[in-house]
Amino acid sequence: MKHLFNKLITFINSIRSNIAFYPTLLAAFGFNFAFFMIYLEDRGISTYLLEAVPVLVVDNGNTALALLSSFITGLISMMVFSFSMVMVLLNQASSNYSPRLLPGLISDKNHQVILGIYLFTILYCIFILFSIQPTGDKYQIPGFSVLLGILFTAVCICAFIYFIHNISHNIQINNILDKIFHLAEKRLKHLIDSEEMGEKDFPDTSGWYEYHTEKTGYFQNIALTNVVDICEKKETKLEILPVKGIFVLKGIPVFKSEKELDKETIKDFLSNFNFARGELVEDNYTLAFKQITEIIVKAMSPGINDPGTALNGIDYLMELFALRMKKKDESIISRDEKNYVKLTTVNFEELMYNVISSIRVYGKHDVSLVQKLSTMFLYLKSQEAVHSYYYEIIDKEATTLLEDARDAITNKSDLKIIEKLARKLSLNTNKFQLE
């Protein structure tokens, strides 16, 4: 039962990024709520309220029909406009910033809830409209239900105003960068806190048994609670081989086990691996580095030419790298001070190289960008690191950046700035001096 519950939670987390998740839930609720109100109308709720509080009940059939018909037509138009605005937002973000931003924007809970409110009200009004039946020369009027339709429509209008505000806010690059940063910061802090528990040593896995998956896709997440439960039951330990975010091919080993496993146990382990065609920062903090780097690179490309955005992006990278320096290069999952699972993660050297090498291509000729990156290196060297060799990696990337900048820049005044930056970073200034 516990395993099924954990799998259900994992499944819900994986589909929450779908733009139809909350709209589908609210539409289903609106459908059922309409029939619930029809049931109450059959029990005479409107008749009772008409006698007790007549101001709350619509008692004219033609008025009720006209209101509900107008609400349905107006709300459908409003919903179409809102969906069009979402598509414009996604297209602009993909063109101007990075296609990797789309999963995060699509999974925006506020947009999903607003679209769900529209669908809830539309379905509610449609079925209440059908319940208005003529009896002789009069209509059987669900007066209180019509009043609720009026209130729900007013809520939709307020939601639409908020939607316009929210979508204009979300498309601003500063807000996009800020959202990416805070999601990655939250994930990194969680991982750093989890490293403080349990033993630190994990046995050598070179001779362990390898097992592969029959699925393909991006390795998005894993239900670690379930995996540890199975490890405890089978008295074994695991090493998860793929890095989160990597594309896993069918037949490629995905985990190693200390003990040989039967087919049923292998199936149980693999059922806790979540493969998808997209990625979210909440599950994989390295995606934040990729997204911010791509925003910086696109901003510095000749087609966009927006150095201000690139400089802002480096500020966020600076904070994320400083936080990453507090995390170890390997993650070990423990329970009751006993290690069970070793996760393969992107090490600090690989992460920094991938980020800086991408920026160097478009930024090495721009002195302002080189200065900003040098400021980042200087700041990182002053931060506390969990491993001392992190500082050597920073010096290596700083040296490579300034060497490329020296080769790309010809102006003597700019070259003097490069030499000063090398001196500030305590690098070998001989290779940066003017000839």
Automatic annotation (TrEMBL):
Tell whether Transmembrane is among the UniProt keywords.
Answer: yes
> What is the top-level taxon of the source organism?
Bacteria
Keyword match Membrane: yes
Q: Name one Pfam family in it.
A: DUF2254
Q: Which InterPro entries match?
A: DUF2254_membrane
Q: Which UniProt keyword terms apply here?
A: Membrane, Transmembrane, Transmembrane helix
Q: Where are the transmembrane segments?
A: 20-40, 64-90, 111-132, 144-164
Please report the name of this protein according to its UniProt entry.
DUF2254 domain-containing protein
Q: Which organism is it from?
A: Christiangramia crocea
